[in-house]
TrEMBL record:
Main location: membrane
Keywords carried by this UniProt record: Membrane, Transmembrane, Transmembrane helix, Transport
Organism per entry: Cladophialophora chaetospira
Bilayer-spanning residue ranges: 105-127, 139-159, 171-193, 205-227, 274-298, 304-327, 339-358, 364-387, 394-415, 427-448
Protein name: Major facilitator superfamily (MFS) profile domain-containing protein
Single GO molecular function: transmembrane transporter activity
GO cellular component: membrane
Cell location: Membrane
Family annotation (Gene3D superfamilies): MFS general substrate transporter like domains
Domain Major facilitator superfamily (MFS) profile: 1-453
Mode of membrane association: Multi-pass membrane protein
Organism superkingdom: Eukaryota
């Protein structure tokens, strides 16, 4: 008698929908091809792909992070006074999933358009005269920026195996973060610019003008340097294209990916695990934005540093976060472990925030900022890699980052000027987010490990509707 647990009707429908997406229409799911290449060939291919995928993506995402957080630098450089912003002024980010478009138009066309468009928005912010116009520019900036991060993660996921993604998503994110880590110093230098006797003597305007011009230039040259999806590239010979495709088949157990329709993607959204992945990303996005937006204000008002020192001291914590995060991402892929790394990094962020909140010496509080920035920033790429390892690449990345937009809105509002100098509500709200991330990650990972074990024992139907597939908790 078959004692295997029966699937519910809804689970069967979901698995059928997912299997349908990963199979070519009206055909059987193909058998993975036999490996007919050497380790040396694969290693050389991966190295070549690394050098083509990451440089331009990292540059434009670094500009994105600069453009996204330069408003806090402009705020303390005089924008609040010039535009008569009230205490507790808030700015919302708007996200718009664009992975449906990127697959059909191609990364070079779509991402280049987005980069140029948001660069023009940043440039326009340097010429505003009211907070209403500034808000419109910020809203448009968020809309155009929204497609970059999920699109980049989608591209990375299309080139690499399951346990190659963590360190590469982290490399992409941290290479960009390294450039934005110098953002406060760069913003301080730009804020010293004075031209004429009119509005251009306001240094905060030059933060937007110069960074906007740099982003527009990057958008115009991006089509020549951005990498496409594997089936679109022309810089691989037929043998290399075969290896690039076949090694992913072997890794994902016959998961042949074709572009899902809107209807198929909506069906895949019924998977409850996707909601958990998205909530995980929401908590981390909220934590990252809360620190990124208000770190200069914390340093200046909370710790008593001057404007210049607050800008200069903003870079070292990000530099530390880059190298520590890359090290932990390497450990995650090397030893094939996801959840323990995520929980450890969240706990580190909690310790850092407590060190910012309670000790009196500025040096101790500043050290806490190192831990807080690392604990939060490192879990952005790690959480994305965690979600990418479990189910459909494009839908997961786009959905997680879209839900993360709400985290951006939350994070940009929880540190209020009236809570200075300790910012107690903001810090404890961020701590609560990190605790929630730990609980969700541990609970879901134990569930996924159990599903893998049941599948190994033959007591569970094919995971995600694909024979041989296993989760990567």
């Amino acid at each position: 008698m078959d004692e295997r647990p029966r699937q519910s009707i809804s689970d069967e429908k979901r698995d059928d929908a997912i299997a349908h997406v990963f199979a070519r229409h009206d055909e059987e799911v193909p058998t993975p091809p036999e490996q007919d290449w050497t380790k040396e060939e694969e290693k050389a291919l991966v190295k070549k792909v690394d050098w083509r995928v990451f440089p331009m993506l990292s540059i434009v995402f670094g500009l994105s992070l600069l453009d996204r957080t330069n408003i806090s630098a402009a705020y303390i450089a005089g924008m609040a006074v010039d535009l008569q912003l009230t205490v507790g002024a808030r700015y919302a980010l708007f996200e718009l999933p664009s992975n449906f478009v990127i697959r059909r138009l191609g990364a070079q066309i779509w991402l280049s358009f987005l980069i140029t468009a948001w660069g023009l928005c940043v440039l326009g912010m340097g010429f505003v005269h009211s907070w209403e116009t500034l808000t419109v520019c910020r809203a448009l900036l968020g809309i155009f920026e929204a497609g970059l991060f999920p699109g980049a993660v989608y591209i990375i996921g299309s080139w690499y195996r399951q346990y190659e993604t963590a360190r590469r998503v982290s490399l992409f994110y941290m290479a960009s973060l390294l450039s934005s880590g110098f953002g406060p110093t760069f913003a301080y230098a730009l804020s010293l610019i004075r031209v004429g006797n009119g509005m251009y003597r306001s240094g905060w305007r030059w933060i937007f003008i110069i960074e906007g011009i740099a982003t527009v230039v990057a958008g115009l040259v991006a089509p020549f340097f951005l990498v496409e999806f594997p089936e679109r590239v022309k810089w691989l010979n037929p043998r290399q294209k075969h290896i690039a495709s076949a090694r992913l088949h072997a890794d994902k157990a016959a998961k042949e990916y074709v572009h899902p329709t809107i209807r198929e993607s909506l069906r895949m959204l019924l998977d409850w695990k996707l909601l958990v992945f998205s909530l995980q990303y929401f908590t981390m996005a909220s934590s990252v934005y809360s620190i990124a937006f208000f770190q200069p204000i914390i340093l200046r008002e909370g710790m008593g540093f001057s404007y210049a020192m607050a800008q200069l001291l903003g870079s070292p914590p990000y530099i530390f976060a880059v190298f520590a995060s890359l090290a932990m991402a390497w450990v995650s892929d090397k030893y094939r472990i996801r959840w323990a790394i995520l929980v450890a990094q969240s706990l580190t962020g909690i310790v850092g925030l407590l060190a910012i909140l309670y000790p009196k010496p500025p040096g101790v509080r500043y050290f806490g900022l190192f831990l807080a920035v690392y604990g939060c920033q490192s879990n952005i790429p790690a959480t994305l890699a965690y979600g990418q390892s479990q189910t459909a690449d494009g839908v997961v990345a786009a959905t997680m980052i879209s839900v993360g937009a709400a985290g951006g809105i939350t994070g940009s509002t929880i540190f209020r000027s009236e809570d200075a100098p300790q910012y107690l509500p903001g810090i404890w709200s961020t701590i609560a987010m990190l605790i929630l991330h730990c609980i969700m990650t541990f609970g879901l990972s134990m569930y996924l490990k159990r599903q893998n074990r049941l599948a190994d024992e033959g007591n569970r139907p094919a995971l995600e509707g694909v024979e041989g597939f296993r989760y990567a908790p």
